[in-house]
Structure formats: C-alpha cells, structure tokens
Amino acid sequence: MPRVNRTFVFVLLLASSCAFLLFQLYYYRNYVSKEPGLHLLDPAGHVMSSQVQWQNLKKFLALAQFFRLPLFLADSAALALLSQDALRQRDRAMHEPHCSFLCAGRPITSFALPASQWQLSPGFLLAAEQKGFQLLEVRGRDPRLASLDTLSGEEIPLHFLFRLHGYIIHVVLLYERSGGYLWHGALRLKATADPTFAPFRLLDYGRHAGAYDRPELLLTVVDGLDVRVPRNISRFLVQRQEARFLECRYHDARSFLQLYPDDSSAAAVEFRRKAKVLLRLAAQTLGRLDIPFWISSGTCLGWYRQCGVISYSRDVDIGIFISDFRPQITTAFRDAGMSLKHQFGQVEDSLELSFLGEDVKLDIFFFYRDGDVVWNGGTQAKSGRKFKYVFPSFSLCWAELLEVKVRVPCETLDYVMANYGGTWSVPVKSWDWKSSPSNVIENGVWPVAEWAGLIQVY
Amino acid sequence: METWTPNPRAKPFIPRQQRSWYLTWKYRLTQRRSLRRFCQAGAVLFLFVTVVVNIKLILDTRRVADEDAADQEYEDVVPNMETPRRPASGRKVLDIEVYSSRSKVYVAVDGTTVLEDDVREQGRGVHVIVLNQATGHVMAKRIFDTYSPHEDEAMILFLNMVTRGRILIFTVKDEGTFHLKDAAKNLLKSLGSQAALGLSWRDMWTLVVKKGGQVYGEKHSKSPALSTWGDPVLLKTEVQLTAAEEAECHWADTELNRRRKLFCSKVEGYGSICSCKDPAPIEFNPDPLPSNNVFNVPVAVIAGNRPNYLYRMLRSLLSAHGVNPQVITVFIDGYYEEPMDVVELFGLKGVQHTPISIKNARVSQHYKASLTATFNLHPDAGFAVVLEEDLDISVDFFSFLSQTIHLLDQDDSLYCISAWNDQGYEHTAEDPALLYRVESMPGLGWVLKKSIYKDELEPKWPTPEKLWDWDMWMRMPEQRKGRECIIPDVSRSYHFGIIGLNMNGYFHEVYFKKHKFNTIPNVQLRNVESLRKDAYEAEIQKLLREAELLDHSRNPCEDSFVPDTDGKTYIMFIKMETELDTSTWTELAKCLHVWDLDVRGYHRGLWRLFRKRNHILVIAVPISPYSVKKPAALVPIHLEPPPKEEGAPVEQL
C-alpha cells in the first residue's frame, strides 16, 4: 500500500509540475520575450537579430524614401560609432550589408524628421502598418500656441515609435520655432497608451524637450542603406548632450501680467524692441565665438516671471562662466557695433563687462565656481567697493526669450530665489544692486593702487 | 514477451516507427518497477527544470518591472478626461417637450433644454431644430424670421437640405406667419403637418416630425384677434430612436469619407455634402500655379460662429488655383463645435481662441492672437495671408498674390497687398489685369508683412479695454505712416456675409452685393513693376497726359457726363479744400453708387475707376498734387449734400 501511495504522489507531483512549467513558459513568452534583445533560449541569436533589425531598417527607410520623408539619423550610439571611424565605415560599406552601425547592439534606432516635411501623414503611417510595423504615436500640446494662453489647437504629433519583431524605430519630429531653432517635445504617454510598447528608458529623445540648431545634412551609405546624417556629427552629438529645453511658464506669466499689467507706453515698447535687438546681437556674437552664456539677474527674472523683459529694468544681463572667458569678447562686441562702457575686476576675480548698443546696456557677469556654489562679482566704480553674489550651482538649459534662443539655469527657480528672495514674484521698481539682492555679500575694496586697471569706465 | 515482434499485417497503415514507440512504451509501462523509476526520474528532472526556469523568470520579471518603474515618469499625469458614454443599450426613446408662445420658446430633449429663448425683441419667427434620429444629438438649430420677407425661402432651402430620416422640431415665437408663403406652408404640409395650411397671424404652433416619416406630435392655437396672440402651446411627445446603421450612408471607406461620415453624424444643413448617393466633394484638387511664390505663405482664416459661412469660404479657398492646404489655419473665436467640425471636414488645422473683451475689441484681440500664432506656427514665413470667414476667394487669388508679393518685400512704401477694391463695383471696375496703389487699407483678403507686424503692430496693438476696430486702428496715420496698399481693379474676394458684428441685410445689399468679383483664372497682371513708388508716379503722369477733360459744365451725376466711348481715359476735378472737406466726393460717390461712407481708395487725392468702359481719373483740387494738371480757368466740381434730414447713421464696416 505505501508503495502505491508513493507512486500516486509521484504522478501527482509530475502532473502539477508539468502544468506549472507549461504555465510559466506561456507566461514567460508573453511577458518577457516581447522585450527585444533578450534571447535567453537562443544564445546564438545576436547575429540573427541584427539581421532582423537591419531588415526592419531597410524596410522602413525604403518606405520613408517612397513617401519622400527626409528622415535623418539622430541615433546617438550609431552617430558616435560613425564619427569615431569614418574610415572603417567606408571599408565595411564595401562588404555585404552588415548592421554594425545602425544596430549598435541596441534595440532602438532613432531618426529625426523636420515637422514641416511631415505632410499628409496618414499615407505613410498606414503604409507602415501594412508593412507590419506597430505604431505608437505620441502627441502633445503645440508650444507655438502655448505662448498665447487664449489659443488651443489640436495636439501635434511629437514622436512616432515603430515596432517590428521587437525592434523599435523612433522618429522624433523637429518643429521650427520662432527663435530660428528646431524643437522636439518631451515624450509623455497618455494613460491609455501601452507602457510596455518600448523600453522607453533607452530612448535617445523624449525625456525632456530639446532645442537644436538646424543641422546641415549629408546623404551617405551606412550599413548598405541610404541614410541622411548631420554633416557635423560631433557637433550634433554635443548639442544633443545639452539640448534640454525649458518652455516658458506662459500660464503663470499670464496670471502675473493680470496682476501687474505690462507697461504699454511708447517708451516701454521701445525698450522691449531695443532689448530684443541687443539680445539677438549678443547671442549671435557669443555664438560665433562658441561661448555659452545664460540670461541672468533681471533678464532671467523677466523670462521666468513674465516670459518677457521687465520694461523698467533698463538693461540686459547675461552670465558666462569664467572658464569660457576669451579676450576676443571685447573686440567681437565692438565689431558687432557695440561700445565697451566699463570693465570691472580681472579674470581672476569679479570680472564684469558692460557694453552699450541701441543705447541699452548689456551687462556681462562672469561666474566663478567655488565648491558647490557659483558666484559673480560687482564693483562700485566711485568707491572701489566689491560685492559678491552667490548662487547654488546649476546646469544650463535652452529657452526662448523675445524670439531669441538663449540659455537659462535649468534650476531657474533656485537661481531666481537666490537672487531675489522669496518675493521675486512681486515687482520692485526701486532696486539697488548693492543692497537689494538677497544673495549679495560685501567683498572688501579693490586696492586703490590697482584701480586704474580694475575699474575702467569709458 | 521480451522477444515480441510486431505483426505487420495487424495494423498496416500505422507508420512503423510510431507504432514501435507506442508499443515499447506500452510494454515498459506494464512493468511496475521501471514505471516507478521512470516516474521518479521524470519528476526530479521536471522539478529541476521548473526551479531553473522559475529563477530565470523571477529575475526577468524583476528587470522588466524595474524598467516599468523607470518609465513611469513618462506617463502623463493628466487623468483620462473622457466621460463614460451612455450605454448604447440605454433608453431608445426620447422625451421631447416643445413650447411656443408670444415671449418664450423652449425645446427640451430628455429633460435637457436644447433651446430656450425668452429674450425680448429677439428670436421672432420659426425656430427649427434637427435631431439625429439614432443618437438624439442636436445637429442644427436655426431661426427663420418669417415675419420678414424672404426668410421663408431660406427655410425651404434649409428644410430641403436636411437628410431624410432626421427629426425636425418646429416652434413659433411671437409671430412667424406674416411672410410665410404658400410654398413654405405646402412644404410643411408635405412633411406631415396638419395645421400648416391654416397657420395665420400670431398663431402659436409646434411640430415634431421625422423627415419623410411619421409625425410625432403637433399643436396649434389660433390667435383670436389681430391684436392678441394665440394661447401658449406645450407639446410633449416621445420619439423612438433608430439603429445607428440606418442613420448613416454607406460611402466607400476612405480617409475623406471618414471625415465626411464624422461630419454628417454631427451637423445638418450643408446640403449634398451628406448625400448618400452623390455627395458633394470635400477635396478639390485645383490646378497648381506654374511658379507659385506664395505656396509657403501661411494663410490665416479668421472665423467666428458662422459655420455655414466658413463652409462656403473654405470651399472657395480650397478651389483657388495654387492653394496649399498645409499652410491654412482657421482661427475660431470661441469654443464653438460646428465651425470646428467644418474645419475638420476639410482636413484643415483649426485653432480655438478664448474670447477676450466684447464687440469690436473682441474681434481685435482675436486678430492679434491669430496673427501672432500664425507667425509662431510658421517662423520662416515673411508674410501671412489674412482672410475672413465671410469671403469668397477668387480662383486666381493666389496667382494675383504670387505676381505681386515681391513688391511688398522690396518696396518699403507699401503697407499691404489687398484683394479688395473698395470702389470696385460691377459698374466701376473693368480690368482684371490692372492694379492700383491706394492710401487706405482695404482688408478683406490681404497680405501682411511679418516685419511690419512684429516690429510695429504687435507691440502696440490695442489692448482689450480699448473698443477699437482693428482695421480702423490699422488705418490710423500712426500705424500706416503714409504707406500704401496694392489692390486690383477687379476684387479677388467677395464679401458675402449678411449677418455680422457691423453688418445687416440692408447694408450688404447697398454696399457689397454689387461688388465685382474676378472669376477668370490665371489672369496675367499688367505692368506689375510699375506699382513701385516712383514707377507708379510716372505711370500716373502718363495717364494724366493722355486723359481727356470731361465737360465740367454737365452734372456729374447724370449718365451723359461720361461720353459713350470705349477704352478712353477721362479726367475730372472735384473740390476738396482739406482732408476733411469730403462733401463733394461723398455726393459723387453716392450718385456713382460706390462706397460713400468714408473716403477710401485714393492715391494722393486721385481716384481711379471705370465708367462705361472708360477709365476715369477723379482729382481732388487743391489737395492733390495732380491739381497742377487742372486748366487754370476750370472750376472744379462742387456738390453739396441735399439739405434733407439724414437718417440714422449707418454703422461703418
């Protein structure tokens, strides 16, 4: 009897483990195998899979070509490989098509597309679906209408994800913005979208909105496929690193302007016009020198608080890290038709330049890193007193002010709060730069003997 | 048994290998010991595999879960706002209440008021509501003031356009029969009304009927005397909804027809667009222009809540040669559904604007937002075409702009290019190839230069509290700064709007109905380069030299003032001492039946127009610099307004 029992137990065990195993295999297939790049049961799958990915890309690019979509390769991994060894690429292109650049060991390949070329989309999308691609379209608010709080348009397409055989082709749409740059939106899924559609964390684009210069494109052959790539790949990749774009807080700005209406007098209108010209000139001049700058002080506050310039601030303030200082700055601004008004301090300490253009002052403050803070200096010309303005350290983002693409501290609120305190949202017309800022520290006096070199007023 | 061999004849059709396997197993399983061993081994093996797979599974699912968590931040925080739909299996019967009285009408569908009008001195006449027979949604709402003439014709037109099967609700407010002619009454009778033929002065009446189907209810109360109204009537009835399939047409499944289907399920009153058999096209594919300089110039259509106008306007716009639908944006002032439905029907881009302020300031704020948005949406564009929803667009509108737009870029003395000639009526415009420079800003289909808007107009645009007309403001010297607009002799737009902020039927009849509108495609404009500032002066001088002097002793209002010639140029001089001395021109404009409400369409005190196919130059003496051409002895024509009392001043457009 015990023997019979034992057999029975075995059979039972066998049956249940069989059932369990089958269930798990089924579940496993359903849940995990959808993840691309996972070939647990097929260790030799990689070569195969890159073939599959290459076939996907070929199919997709042929389709894009048929619909005359001027896609260009924007994949960071692929572009990095391309920029590293352009020579090796030429060698490989001679061989049979082999997906060594475009696949790059990742299940995603990213392309960008100027949105103005995105015409009559249904045809392309339908064709792609017929070719077997699964599509995820991510739409979002149109930022070009957001500046006018009173307008609401349809949501515009921002990202397309095409999935086939577990591989993703990511198409990010680049919209032309008023500041003469290209913009792409952040990728945010709707509640109804499938959050497992793609490994979103691995996407090159979409974590934040981004701003890019219009890249010059080059048609080339990569892995045996005709692909457009940015002519200056490394520049594009650098841009990608620091592309994060902050939209102005238009809604809050509108509330602010309802509370404190903008000055619409002729003088204020004229100042805004001049400030715009000056800012554009500064951006062009420093852009030519490749010196990154950000809007600072009152100009930054104006952007953050009211998406414009504060009409009674009477000047334009920008910041530059002292590590980016170049002596050519002065001559470059002179060549751009601006005159040096004063120069305070020295490269080692509290450097500050002021230019005059369109009879509006452009103040350039140089920022010094000191541990986990950054600071800039100020000098009172008549007394030689020195001041120091301390900010928490920050990274730089792109933003648009007066239709000019400028940088702002990404942690804008911290920056503004440091400078203007908790009451930054209340306009203050009588402002003393030596005492009003909440982050000002007295920093001694310049030695009188050195005044001639340190305090130059023209 | 160990040496058992298969018998081939026993089961000849079973494949050999299979059979032997089967038999081997059968044989083995009969051995209890081997069975037990096998079971043990198998169980252990399976247990082992299960454990391995399990561990793998746990690892992988954890990894996936990690990624999911990381992807959480991509998810939109906005919850799904879509309200749950009413279950389709819900009620299939609609309760309808219709009320008709002297001072108030209302219609309630399933307890929801879809029409309520108790405002005094408004909403007189027959109110008509169209419901979708499958969903019960309101598809159209109209009032026909059949107390006034011709409104019954509009009602007939509308009722004929409604698709068969729709539910029609009628109710009368105040008076709706004075000009309700027999044709309309017969149509109502054919719809199933019993009382229609007997409807008379100040009767109250309600009717609920399915077009081409049953009558759900009708109530009528006669007015007892001329001075009194009939008693109010309240009709309560039930309407059986039909299945959705019966309410739809079966068009081929294309992108276009999907748009059409959506549109036709929501609104009514657009005629053959929704015809099942032979629907009107919604895609026009007009010819492209051979070389189009305005293909990428954005087009802003400024619209309010006049969806039928918008429909007519967009049809003409999308039929114009060289149109690029990709750059058209319709800006709708207010969150109205029906204009948006029209925009989507044509597959265009629509943007809605939250109304700010009132009356003219509301229009002005809408214009500002629309223009700013247009240049935001098209940062590369140097110009924008501005249109309104109550304009027909000429077939050669874009051809006209394509030939002239470079002037706006190159000649700083230009303010705009407009498709509209204020003085271009049927009897005063002749030459589709002729262009003028004028000092006023006509609007009504015009091109705005980006730099003018961005640098000059936008920063000082009138704020919402200023109740100014945007166009009057743009015409002010502070904005125009002496610059001029280019216009054609024969307008490339036609203003058909009868209802509007500054518009009524009489006003339209007098000033807009007889406006000349070009219908010839691809007109080659003449001497476009001579429209530049200096070249135009030379052109004028040439005209003045060849012009013949009209007989100033005759009455300019008489037909014989201009000789019955063809293709000649004549010149006349009128008195105008100062800019404000407009009486002679106004009187002349009145008898010429051109625009006389203010002084428009001149260039340095010179008007150019056609009479009897002759070109007439009218020169204001002495303010025009061309006055020097006047023979010294000639006395300029002077007209005084008749002494009679002027009526109520007509609102200016």
Automatic annotation (TrEMBL), chain A:
Transmembrane ranges, per UniProt, are 7-28
Task: Give me the Gene Ontology terms describing cellular component.
Answer: Golgi membrane
Q: What is its main location?
A: membrane
**Where is this protein found?**
Membrane
Q: Which UniProt keywords apply?
A: Membrane, Transmembrane, Transmembrane helix
Q: Among its keywords, does the record have Manganese? A: no
Domain (Ribitol-5-phosphate transferase FKTN N-terminal) ranges: 1-276
Provide the topology term for how it sits in the membrane: Single-pass membrane protein
What name has this protein been given in UniProt?
Answer: Fukutin
Native species of this protein?
Answer: Poecilia formosa
TrEMBL record, chain B:
How would you describe this protein's topology in the membrane? Answer: Single-pass type II membrane protein
Span of the signal peptide:
none
EC main class here is transferase
Q: Quote the record's cofactor note.
A: The manganese ion interacts primarily with the substrate UDP-N-acetylglucosamine.
GO terms of biological process kind: eye morphogenesis; protein O-linked glycosylation via N-acetyl-galactosamine
- In the Enzyme Commission scheme, what number(s) does this protein have? 2.4.1.-
Catalytic reaction(s) noted: 3-O-(alpha-D-mannosyl)-L-threonyl-[protein] + UDP-N-acetyl-alpha-D-glucosamine = 3-O-(N-acetyl-beta-D-glucosaminyl-(1->2)-alpha-D-mannosyl)-L-threonyl-[protein] + UDP + H(+)
Where are the coiled-coil regions? 526-553
Q: Where in the cell is it found?
A: Golgi apparatus membrane
Pfam families documented for this protein: GNT-I, ILEI
Record's PANTHER family?
Answer: PROTEIN O-LINKED-MANNOSE BETA-1,2-N-ACETYLGLUCOSAMINYLTRANSFERASE 1 (PTHR46396)
- Binding partners and assembly: Interacts with DAG1 (via O-linked mannose moiety). Interacts (via transmembrane domain) with FKTN; the interaction is direct and is required for normal location in Golgi membranes.
Its name, as the record gives it, is: Protein O-linked-mannose beta-1,2-N-acetylglucosaminyltransferase
